């Protein structure tokens, strides 16, 4: 670390990032001596409060409550700010500082919102939503109790599910470009004749591109470009957001306590360069091989016709063999190894990440040449051969999710705890990811089929139609939405009943106040709505189960009948036939609408900063976790934010020797806790943790129990010197920290009163707002608890005194 600190604005060879000029360029002892010389009379070291905002972001002016702020370290993406009059506060005594906080700690604001909602191009990340959800499933496994093999198997199945999502997306692009446009529409004189941009592909013109194989080869440019774009985005976002090297603290894996440490303590947890690069190569290769298969299968089907054979047939078999070998290689790379977290894994499998996508691209090029070879007698009729692959993908996803569920149940039984859905949260979320992927791929196909066919119902006539399975899946959407509406009605009734139970208790918190029925109902309704967060598993679980069952029914119906539901039910009783026709038409429209809404939302967010901020809130929650399962998911902002916070706490405490409180709101409290876990023992002795509106136990502890479960939070409570948590009953996100040994009261304050004042008073002549999840710093308890944390931290030896440098050096080695 010392060599890194001595570099000033030097680009690191690993990441291309620069070390900010404001970082200390001297040793801790030199900085401490200068701080002592600057502070009057050898006063104690200064105190620091490091603020971390929550979801949606905020400005440094709002965080520091001062219109004049300065960036002291960082860049446009993420930075630390101070009030303008506190830039050099370490060199002044508290009496010389200005402003209302001069008797309190120096205040800094870490602003990280641009990691998720800054650049307008990030709105396009909405199209990667299924990949993000699949990546979450990796981190939702139940905690392990000496079942490392089961943990690795669970992670393997999640990575394979993520791989099928990539294949599904590229297959959807192939369906539009190869089947609907190049095969069906361009091969039909009626369809191509009405579209001038397809005229040169029509067989009626007898042009060079009129042969089906050549049309397919040209259309393969679209899914190929999509695959290349996904590779580019994954590579670019890694360099921009996730390549910040953490503080390296080697872990002795042979030590008995090494295996029992919480995973977020491990030095390599927030730096997964090797696994992301390897998965990126495998998924890119899978995309190219999917396109190659879309070209090769219909071509070999023609070449194997009666009277065919010869050189083309042999070339087809050779390509099919290469495709099989490539598929095995991709699966082997995905299965080979998961994350390595006990050390900073900066090495790369350069042969794999170069050769695998390169070889797959070469196979795709051979497939293009093979399909483009002249076959004068070939004509395209019906649907593209090989589009039954969607059924194979759906069956594979279902089997993998069932295998995930078995692993999750085994892990849950070995270490039961307060986890949702009996440990099946990960498989449930994986089902939702696959459902979103099907809607994305199917919605594109349905809309293009409708557009190319002039609005005719897909599959009901000889016109342009997508694969039968996609129509069956669309037919299931109305039933799924109906079930969701029923669930929402149930929870609406539940909120109403809870509100009525709370009404008699509201005035207990405001003795002596005159009751106001409207005010009381509003407070009770807010508390009841906030409690719905704890009922989320009862929405996610049923929706995931119904999605899985409807998906299985759709695959069965498509496989058994090879007809769309409306035609398959033609001989059924009238009510069944009418229901099938209605569900098919409505579902096709809804699936297309869902895709159009996604694109419209992304387009609006591209132009509107306010909409982009809303989307940023989604990413704040969904992209906290590293890309361990899907390399094309939106980037993990914590792989930049956690090292930023860790570096700041380490370097400031070593340079000035002062006490530090890191206070995090909402998602910022999760970042703060993760950063504290990464500190060494000496630094943690000078740091206290203040969380408010925190989802650490209420959301993360339940949905990610292997990383924020009771055991892990108890470990954090034991490792950080002092920790206090503020929460409200009206907060739908934050909650108390329940620790398994009954030490919760040492962490939690009692529930804060909200609103602070019930009615109008001389001090509050206007009604006080119900704060809910926001503005915790407006409560007087906040300042009191912060001051209490600083008072409980031990007074540090003024920097620069004899032996200070030696003590800090020994503390460094002990970490």
UniProtKB/TrEMBL annotation:
The chain crosses the membrane at residues 153-173, 216-233, 281-302, 314-336, 348-373, 393-412, 424-449, 469-491, 538-560, 580-602. It comes from the Bacteria. Residues 82-103 have a biased composition (Basic and acidic residues). Keywords: Membrane, Transmembrane, Transmembrane helix. Residues 1-48, 81-103, 787-815 are annotated as: Disordered. Residues 25-42 have a biased composition (Low complexity). This is Integral membrane protein. It comes from Streptomyces niphimycinicus.
